[in-house]
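It is worth pausing here to work through a concrete case rather than discussing structure prediction in the abstract. The textbook approach is simple: state the sequence, then state the predicted structure, then interpret. We follow exactly that order.
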Amino acid sequence: MSQSLFGLIPTASTGQQWVARSMQLINWGGYHGFHEVAFASTATLLSGGSGTGKSTLLDAYIALTMSHTTPFNGASNGAASGRARGREQRNVLSYARGKLDEARVAGTSSSRDAVLRGDGTDTWSAIAMTWADQVGQTFTAVRAYYVPAAATRNDECTLVRATTDSAFDLRSLEPFATGRFPRGPLQERLGLALHDTDIAFTTRLHATLGIGAAGDGAKAMGLLARIQAGQQITTVDALYKSMVLEEPETLAKAQEAIDHFDELSEVREEMLTAQRQLEVLSPIVGLRQRVEAAREQLEVVSTLGVERASERTTPFAHWHDSRRLELARAQEVANRRAHAQAEERKVGLDAQILVTEREHEEVKDNQRRNGGDEIARLEREIAALEDALGDTEVRHARFEQHRAVVGVPVTSKSEFEALRRTAAAFVDSRDARERELADAVYEARAAQAEAVRGLETLDREKASLAVRRGNVAAEDHQARCLLAQAAGLTPDELPFVAELLDVRAEHEPWREAIGLALGGFATTLLVDADHLTAFRRAINDVDLRRRLRFEGVRTGLPVVEQADRSRLDGRLDVKHGPFTGWLTDRLARQFAYVCVDDPADLGKHAKALTRTGQTNDGSRGAHGGRGRPSVLGFSNERRLAQIDEERREATVAVAERRRDVEDAEAAARAFTDQFAAYQAIGGFAWDEIDVRGATRRVAERRERFDELAAGSDVLRALREDEQRLAARLKDLRTQSSRAAVEMERLETAWGTLTDEVDELSDGLAELEDAGVAATDVQVTLLDDRLAASGWDGGDLRAFTSAVAAMRADLVHAHELAAHDLQSAQDTLARTFERFVEMWPNPNLGTDPDDSYDDFRRILGEIEHQRMYSLRERWSRAISRLSGRDLTMLDTAIEQAVADIRARMEPVNEILSVLPFHDDAHRLRITATVTEAHDITTFRRELRALAKDVPDDATPVERERRYARMAKLLARIRPDSPERRRLVDVREHVRISAECVDLEGNHVSVYDHIAGKSGGESQELIAFIVGAALRYQLGDADAERPRYAPVFLDEAFIKADSRFAGRAVGAWRGLGFQLIIGAPLDKVSALEPHVDLVLQAVKDEVGRSRVQWVAAS
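Step two, the predicted structure:
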């Protein structure tokens, strides 16, 4: 029978138990060479002074049986920190070489280890432990290390992991150490089973030694490691949580939820990025349509040649001449028809005049026979006057044709005489007038050229600014580029001061004033002072028409920003870079202007500046120079926007100047017609065209004739007949005269038309021979435009006016199309530049034409593929996170609390059969849920978000849900101080121990260990941890644990003999084999309760050994 504290355990029991029989060491720490330490099957005390090697033996046990991530004992690493077994702590390399101390290398600040072995040479080390069960079976585990002299990490060593189902002499490895433990001989000659990985090795140990239930030996070994570490714990709660409870699954579930949320965030960010890209690129289709429409309009108008008024070899000229020829020929036919009708009308009228004249003569003869010679005389005078009236009417009609050309109304002799004087002066001033008109044409053309140059200047400036970010003049930039190229620098490495300064947004109204105050300093180039000599040498032969100032400055100086916003330098932002420190210092020293709104305040400061740019420098000052573009700024976007506005105004000005040229040229062409008209007007006399005067004289003679005829009834009757015939004759003559005038006019017009038809026909023939002709599309366009102008098919003069108006409209449309094209292309380019700046891609250009297809393809992919795919992924991800991950986290938290209580049941079952203090009492572990308000609200929000997302949820609802998830999960991220409190369910319960009687009635509670005596606390720890270890080892229902060894380092250091005995008895009563490490002053308290006492000692050179002291 085998005696235990709580009863007899049958030696023949079928419950197998493995106890540690012995440990073998070769070259481990201070244990130089071979050492073997035997253990009692019950309890062994390992004592010794500080640093003699107690913890070294216990660390050997950890190195042999546990994972490489398990830290060595705190007694040997208490002053170190860092990764387990890292360079900062005791590790396999330091143990294998037998590290003694560190010593400084002579003459250096570095140090090196003082070691027992392996100093500049290879060495090796090995550990083995043999276990035995109650029927005599043995099992040995071996780890061996071959350590090269240059090794600094464990993975640079040769590692052997081996097991054997028998005892093993570790010294048998020595012949194989020099060969770095070849695999074949170890297996064949020594009979060792080799394991390639820690997992395979520990799996074999756990399976053979019965460590852990259902193959879960890692948890049991982890608990053994925590027990061996001997942590100082003050409460039962902390004891149970640190020793017994592993990290709950809730932390892993929380991390899974966070990982999936981060994936969701990535999808969301991709979706938002795609949305931003869509917003940036969505206008490009409309802009491209504007570009194509503008180009089509430009193509149509440009191919017509309407804007080239002086050219006669354009499709527009062909259409114009064709339509004018058609109109001229139609008018020619109409002219001949009208001439024939007028001629026919005149012949008929002349015949009627002859008949009426005979009748009139007969009546007058009768009058003479009845009235005498006086009537005959009056009749002759009247006839002469009527002939003169007809001539006057003809001359007046001719005069009216010329007067209509000059457009001066004439209703009296004085107005006629004034017109004649004007005509004489006009004819006399022909040369001067022609020079005046020529000067007007020249001035109009000069103004047009100036406007075109202004537009071209803006275009050149825009082109220059488009390829850089600064605002300095293009000539300065080009000169700077030449200097930079000669010096082997980039333009950015040779900045202008202006490019490093910008006016703060809140002080934008001061931009012009600040630029004026800085003056030429703003266009000074800055050169690194260290490279100034080389720079001067490199640029000396560069031929520059533009003179640039440069200054060598120190780089990397400390930056002292001006906080006073009333000063000029306080209203500037300085671009951070190598020149920033120097520039802030120069601004503070040289340009310390105080900005004042009232010029009366200028004298109140040593240096001051007004908003209009006036400066005060003591007795000196400066003013003026406003209106020039500012050169300050990190970016030229503001200037580019100004240029666009100025270009629009300049384009309008160019169009206006072009119309001025056309008007001046039209006035010059009209001068010839006016000169001919004025010259003809000078040949008329007033009496020759005074129709009213001639009419009055005829009326006076007729009145006299009527008076004579009224004296006789016969004469009165004859007079009435004569008046009737005279009136008819007058009317016929008038009509005949008008017909003659019309015939003459038509004849003259026909001659002009004939000449024009011939000229137009010849011109069209030449155009067609030269291949110049308007296409059907162009003809239709121009015909429609002409009809839209309101022309309804009038004469050639109306056609000329209508065409001029239509041509002006087309030129204006051309200008608008050109402006719209440029505007749309500029907007496209800026859109592409913005896209590339926000999402850099070396394969994408920014040319509005060359790169459009690439960006259109990207837009199409976003619209039709990426956005749909990302929205689908977003919906699935947020649904999965809600329906799966958050639900699993909530369930895991719920389950983990239940698991803590469930795991207490087998521990309490073990404790229920172990007497605590005496046979009438037992120890019981209890758990109380202590969820605080923050945990409760967290769980409530978690359950709310764990509900499935409705399929019909709107994007806004999903986004709102995402924001709630982000807020919730931010509280449980690894860097959150709330993480453990919220998801580590160990924080949700309070663990305590209570003493109960055999009926389970409460007797007393054990909450704080620190309030107990050393022995009482160790006894309490032994009961709680020992019972948990029995459960963890998978032996809760067995009479004894299958794996018995428990190593305790620095244990029972506060216990007296009685309570130490009770604590040791508790462990032994649970069936465990104890190996206790304790200092020398605790030997007397522990010695009565152990069966073997060993002592570690160390000699003067640092070599340790273990010697036997007492045995039971």
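Step three, interpretation. The mean pLDDT is 81. The first strand starts at residue 2 and ends at 4.
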